[in-house]
Write a structure and sequence with these properties.
The chain has 305 residues and is an alpha/beta fold. The protein has 14 helices and eight strands. It has a five-stranded parallel β-sheet with strand order 5-4-6-7-8, with helices on both faces. It has a three-stranded antiparallel β-sheet with strand order 1-3-2. The longest helix is centred in the middle third of the chain and has 21 residues. The radius of gyration is 20 Å and the shape is globular.
Amino acid sequence: MAKKDSFSIRQVIELTGLSEFTLRGWETRYKAFKPKRSSTGRRIYSLEDIQKARLLQALLDKGYKIGNIAKLELTDLEKILPQQEAATATPTPPDRLRTFINELLDLAHLFKWDDISDRLQKKRRSLKPDAFVTTVLTPLAGQMGSLVAANQLSVGQEHILSAFIKEQLILVQTDSKKKKSKSRIVMTTPDGDLHDMGIAFASCLSRLEGLQTLFLGPSTPKKDLSETCLRYQATHLLLSSTVSEKEGAKESLFSYINFLDRNLPAEIEFLLAGRNTNQMELKLKRKVTGFLSMQQFQDYLKELP
């Protein structure tokens, strides 16, 4: 399989989790990237640009200023922070599980879906539920997304493999021990955002921690979501947003969240995830917690009553 070494800005967004606004700002204002241009004038980014973007975001999370690090070469950034630490959204699995995940992706390329199902079933039974989710399913989904963005896996293959992953997320919850919790979390995506893989993982991890969780699926209208939170007596609301208005969302995320803020009790904490939430600055009447990775979310869950 040929290694892809050129990417559109949309592919860079998918592979890094950064917004187009952020990428263009780093490029035009801070000269972080120097993409080539296609014959039609479109920006063409390299694999090194993607690696640099991930490293820049990881360093910003640690308190560095973009103006101080944007012009550094990739090798200089790697000296400050190992590249593996930058991939916060997709944890690096142990070597033996990395091999297992690569074998699954090879089977997906060969359309051997029954073999994939059988191997996932066996691996689920051999690992603890939370370990299976974080060291197998999460990196598998991340690598699947990268291959689709690089045109090395078809959308049809992605849909089938996603169905297997979601099936395992359901099955793994039956293997866990139940415990009582005072927290009640409602999870969804804004109206028009049909990408539900992230909240499917979040819902599974929440239930594995014994938290009372209501997973609504994707694309919930704001009025319906407000009523559901009230009737469910939610203590937390998790919103994952990866689609802008231009990409299909019914309204801006800012407008959607502000409606919920006005119509829900201040005691309900808002939890925000997804690439559209990374650069948001909100002034709400309640506590708001944002997450840049699934690991951050899992650590947060462990602290809830």
